[in-house]
Design goal:
Order of helices and strands: EHEEHEEHEHEEEHEEEEH
Shape: globular
Distance between the termini: 39 Å
Strand content: 15-25%
């Protein structure tokens, strides 16, 4: 999804602006999307949710049944065929890339550090249209500060969600299963490589 990621810097990107026009063409080939716990209730209303093979990954929302084709990507009107757009897509063209901590930082117990990166070829970014990311003195604008806060919150939710998936997996509720989906006016499609919640085991699970 991120074709040309690079660290965002006022030295190099002082004049850069972000367009607010919706454009999700970058996700045209994405048929799965990782989701986090904070958005799960919204995602579950209209997407099929599955789980990865290992308990270290995030739950996945299915975006389509045909490899390389995101069925939720419209033709521009509307730009997305769904009421809710997962945070994984909404954060584009920004991403928080983990960076190593110094010895002093590790001794203080503060080990999560990130570099704010952009996809430098994203159509949402230009020096002509949109709202600026930096003020004239190189400080972050309110827009960029809000982006940073959202990414930090998303990263925090990654860890929470991974812990929840591990709990669900440790409880024995996830099973391998081929999903059979029948798209409109097409033959049924079988999707493999995912796990789903075993409904019988869930019904019989103790409240704890």
């Amino acid at each position: 999804m991120f074709q040309t990621p690079e660290a965002l810097s006022p030295d190099k990107h002082l004049a850069l602006k972000l367009s607010s026009a919706p454009d999700y063409r970058f996700a045209a080939k994405e048929i799965v999307c990782p989701v986090v716990s904070g958005e799960m209730w919204q995602v579950a209303r209209e997407y099929i949710l599955v789980f990865p093979k290992t308990n270290e990954g995030l739950p996945l929302a299915l975006m389509g049944t045909q490899a390389g084709v995101n069925a939720y990507l419209g033709d521009g009107n509307p730009p997305w065929w769904g009421r809710y757009i997962p945070a994984h897509f909404r954060r584009y063209p920004f991403v928080a890339a983990p960076k190593p901590s110094t010895s002093a930082e590790e001794n203080q117990g503060n080990t999560q550090h990130f570099t704010l990166c952009i996809d430098s070829t994203a159509p949402q970014l230009s020096e002509v249209n949109g709202q600026p990311l930096f003020n004239a003195d190189g400080s972050a604008t309110d827009l960029l500060e809000n982006v940073q806060k959202a990414l930090i919150s998303l990263q925090r939710d990654f860890g929470i969600t991974q812990a929840l998936v591990k709990q669900i997996d440790d409880a024995g509720l996830l099973v391998d299963q081929t999903l059979t989906i029948t798209p409109h006016n097409r033959e049924p499609v079988g999707l493999q490589g995912f796990r789903v919640v075993d409904q019988e085991k869930l019904r019989n699970a103790s409240p704890e």
